[in-house]
Amino acid sequence: MGLLQKILIPVLGLVLAFCFYSSRENFRPEMLKGKRVIVTGASTGIGEQMAYHLARMGAHVLVTARTEAKLQQVNGKLGTHTCTHKHRKANLTSQVVERCRALGAGSARLVSGSMEDMATTRQLVEVAEAELGGLDMLILNHVGKSYFNYFDGDVGHVQKLLNINFLSYVAMTVSALPMLKRSGGSIVVVSSMAGKVGFPFTVPYSATKFALDGFFSSLRQEFSIQSVNVSITLCILGFIDTENAMRAAADVLLMSPAPKEECALEIIKGGTLRQREVYYRYASTKLPLLLRDWAAELLDLLVRQRYRPERLRAA
Ligand SMILES: NC(=O)c1ccc[n+]([C@@H]2O[C@H](COP(=O)([O-])OP(=O)(O)OC[C@H]3O[C@@H](n4cnc5c(N)ncnc54)[C@H](OP(=O)(O)O)[C@@H]3O)[C@@H](O)[C@H]2O)c1
Predict the structure, then answer these.
(1) pLDDT tens digit string along 109-142?
(2) Is 301 inside any structural domain?
(3) 4 falls within a domain
């Protein structure tokens, strides 16, 4: 009996785990062909790379960013993209749309607006409905600008960041849900290790990412109870080599960043396969999290050792 417990049960567990994972569907790029996808925060970084991958796969891509909105305020309205302005950042965003078209997107559009304003988030989804006639995947990726330093006590900044990084994700989900229910679609939420573990120097940002986990993990449970056929994928990312992240943290962090192109692809794969969570890179995200519940102080110590606070920029 002792031998049975020691050997047979673990072996049985391994066999069952193997069967479970090997029976899962594999990702194929054709799965995205003709799918209607919104990618928020796609003017730069990981969002931009996701737009290009989706375009290559033949999806209909609707990208959002704020920059165009700054200029559209001249006309006082939200707009689908007609870039006539010469502003550098707006041109950057329109270049993303042009490149998506060149890469083979079913269609590519830009809808601009600031996610700080909840009315804007609803309007963005309405434009998507009118332009795409439905939605298969909502990728929530945008992130407001914050500082990389000790918490400065600015409550107003925390509130602003909660609006952009958290409440707008909630508002877009609520607005897009009827379309996603009709298509049996997917919600992909781009989060961070800073939304699972307390990291120093990103206090307001971490708070917004923890909030995403609470909201979307609870919502997933309710979808399951109510048999709502909409998947929710939470993406837990480590340090990625986007321009903004490198500028903010590269000097202080003792770790090498992972490539944004590969990161973007892993997010799309996870969302398409309706995975519960995506960890990228796996070894530097999932494995440390195994320590979190059993040796939290050890994990905190290991995290702190990855920082060089003396290199923080003067506030
Ligand atoms: N890079 C990393 O190391 C890392 C690590 C963990 C998690 N993540 C997560 O990955 C996602 C992408 O990060 P990233 O590094 O690629 O970011 P990024 O390059 O800074 O891009 C952020 C995007 O959000 C848009 N945005 C900013 N403020 C906005 C607002 N108020 N309203 C609407 N859009 C706004 C930006 O465009 P505009 O400025 O034109 O509006 C831009 O397209 C984020 O959710 C981030 O938390 C990144």
Answers:
(1) 999 899 999 988 998 899 889 999 999 999 999 9
(2) yes
(3) no
Domain-embedded: residue 14 = no
Q: Is 139 in the pocket of ligand 1 (CB under 6 A)?
A: no
pLDDT tens digits, 195-205: 999 999 999 99
Pick the atom of ligand 1 nearest to 194's CA: 6
Contacts of 48 (CB under 8 A, 6+ apart): 42, 96
CA dist 265 and 247 (Å) reads 23
Dihedral over Cα of 249, 54, 123, 228: its sign: negative
Number of structural domains, the chain?
Answer: 1
pLDDT of residue 77: 44
Rounded to the nearest angstrom, the distance between the alpha carbon of 245 and the centre of ligand 1 is 9
> Which residues are catalytically annotated?
205
Sign of CA dihedral 106, 108, 114, 117: negative
Which range marks the domain in which residue 43 is found?
29-311
Enumerate the β-bridge partners of residue 143.
none
Q: Is the pLDDT of residue 72 over 50?
A: no
CATH of the domain at 188: 3.40.50.720
Quick check: CB of 66 below 6 Å from ligand 1? yes
